[in-house]
Amino acid sequence: MPIRLACIVGARPNFMKMAPIIRALENNEFDGEFEILLIHTGQHYDSNLSNIFFTELGMRRPDVSLEIGSGSHGMQTARILEGIESVLLKGAPSGGKYDYVVVVGDVNSTLAAALAAAKLGIRIAHVEAGLRSFDKSMPEEINRMVTDTVSDLLLVSEPAGVTNLVREGRASEDIKLVGNVMIDTLVHMLDQAKDIVVAEQFGVKPNHYGVITLHRPSNVDDVKILADLVAVLIDISSHIPLVFPVHPRTEQKLEQAGIRVKLEKAPNIHLMGPLGYLPFLSLTSNSRVIVTDSGGLQEESTFLGIPCLTLRSNTERPITVEIGTSTLIGSNADLLRSSLHDVLHGKYKLGRCPELWDGHAAERIATVLTN
Ligand code: UD1
Q1: What is the whole-number distance in angstroms between the Cα of residue 249 and the centre of ligand 1?
Q2: Which of 56, 57, 325, 338 has the most CB atoms within 10 Å of its CB?
Q3: Do 195 and 301 belong together in one domain?
């Protein structure tokens, strides 16, 4: 009897995390051991936030697409919960109850799928468990806490995750430090990304530009905070050209606040829509510095050894600050300028790669699931 898994994806970072897991589960080594149903909730639906990753990462297409779309947190989470419950209730394709629902990361789809499974008495494996920013104003923090509470198998990417889960009273036999699946994808794709240098296409020279990403509600939803950040970006662009793929959420807020035009007019800032995985990895891996509020990019820059100035005052991924290349800047414009100065003058810390961020985390997860 195969191990029956329902694997859930929904929003951009999920695809990069799930792709190596599916590849490992389908590897010959585990021939026939797993039966997989891949469910896409449709939390992200624009091609550049969803479809493109299936193509680029060579991931199999979803078996079920729920097409839930955007909405308030309550509405989106509720619709996903309802949709996933009805799929799980039908049972596994070969019959019977699923052995595990596998969820990754901390988006609304992760939370909703975990709740649906928990209420049906299906075991939950949470990949990227235990991360805590200790900041409940972040929707992702709530998602992480609740998902871990109802999960049975806690698959952790860095030691702080283990510490947090033990502190929360979780049994050590349920916690497995397996490494970082997002880095699995990076390792798998890096050579291909290097083959398609895209910097010139965006008007900048390899190694002589910064990459900006910005999409956290705490940074973009408040007009004053967003306007201040835009002013700082324009300021630092006089020291180094900046490439800025704009997330749809940020795009809307910039437009609504009437400040997109300021970025457009800045001669050293190159704006574009969201990029696919390969062009984006090509951009980041050839950049001098990354300025971001993304969780995943803190990790990717640490692996790549590229300085990462993180526009957040806390992080659920402390290893990226402790031994990696990230510095928490918060919204401190002076600290951003001085850190950028350090980067440009070769004074910035070098950082090193955390243990188990080696391209093989998904294989370890597959092995854990067989036990
Ligand atoms: C979500 C995740 C966040 C993750 C991010 C990556 C939650 C709570 N947040 O944030 O953790 O870092 O994805 O991108 O799950 N939109 C589009 N096209 C799409 C999807 C969304 O234009 O395909 C627009 C919609 O106007 C939507 C807004 O973006 O209202 C925000 O989308 P949503 O999925 O709610 O949150 P993200 O900000 O993308």
Answers
A1: 7
A2: 325
A3: yes
Cβ(296) – ligand 1 distance below 6 Å: no
Q: CB of 130 within 8 A of CB of 101?
A: no
Contacts of 366 (CB under 8 A, 6+ apart): 21, 24, 25, 27, 29, 30, 34
Within a domain: 352: no
Atom of ligand 1 at shortest distance to CA of 249?
Answer: 29
Question: Looking at residue 231, which CATH number applies to its domain?
Answer: 3.40.50.2000
How far, in Å, is the centroid of ligand 1 from the Cα of 255? 17
- The number of CA neighbours under 13 Å toward the Cβ of 297 is 29
247 catalytic? Reply is no
Chain segment 175-218, per-residue pLDDT in tens:
999 999 999 999 999 999 988 889 999 989 999 999 999 999 99
Whole-angstrom distance, CA of residue 339 vs CA of residue 325: 12
Give the total number of structural domains in the chain.
Answer: 2
Let me know whether 96 and 238 are in one domain. Answer: no
d(CA 353, CA 358): 9
248 lines ligand 1 (CB under 6 A): yes
- Give SS3 for 9: strand
Residue 312 lies in a domain: yes
Choosing from 126, 215, 247, 270, the catalytic residue is: 215
How far is 299 from 161, CA to CA, in rounded Å?
Answer: 14
Enumerate residue ranges in the chain where pLDDT < 70.
none
Residue 295 lies in domain: 190-344
